[in-house]
Amino acid sequence: MLLEVRNLHVAYGDAPALWEAALDIGAGQIVSVVGPNGAGKSTLINAIAGILRPTHGEIRIDGAEIARIPGYRVCDHGIAIVPEGRRLFTHMTVLENLELGSYRGAARAVRDEGIEEVFSLFPILRERQNQISGSMSGGQQQMVAIGRALMARPRVLLMDEPSLGLSPAVVEDMFKIIRMINERGVAVLLVEQNINKALEIAHHAYVIEQGRIVTSGQPSTLLSNPRIREAYLGI
Prior knowledge:
38% of the residues lie in helices and 26% in strands. The chain is of the alpha/beta class. The strands form two sheets. It has a six-stranded mixed beta sheet with strand order 6-7-8-3-9-10, with helices on both faces. It starts with a strand and ends with a helix.
């Protein structure tokens, strides 16, 4: 298994936010985590990314324990995140934002190749590489955020609400892009409010509620279960 999470607990100060979370991501998989607002989805993905420090539990990639290492070193193990809200350096150009994604030594050595791969995925970014990123549309900024993460040459790409604030047409394109990234050999852990789309592209899915993973399985199985649809998916 490429990425394993076991018995993960996360708290904000004295307030518990995640209990006993466990999930697996195999090489080449898209795994979706779905559930209502405030359920703990972003907490889970931020803990895996090293942004939050777990109070208990294990996170392993290729068997290497990363739950206790400094957050900046998580990327060295092949994990990159596209954060909720994109969090670009909005006063910098598209190209400058992309270059910042390749600070790892291994990624920096193939920076030009990485930029070409991002431009092949998002041709409009080639045209607008010298544009200030803060002046772009929400969909184009999301492309930059994804491209910046890919510049780190991840084996696992964490995506936190990539469709947030985007128009329906752009959302369709975004999920096609996620498939394309996966087809290039990158495993994807997707946290997403658009439940139908998230389950449509996933190989496996987890449902989280009130800080706990309450069920998991094949997306088609989850979608066909009336109790799960009503109680956990809100559909």
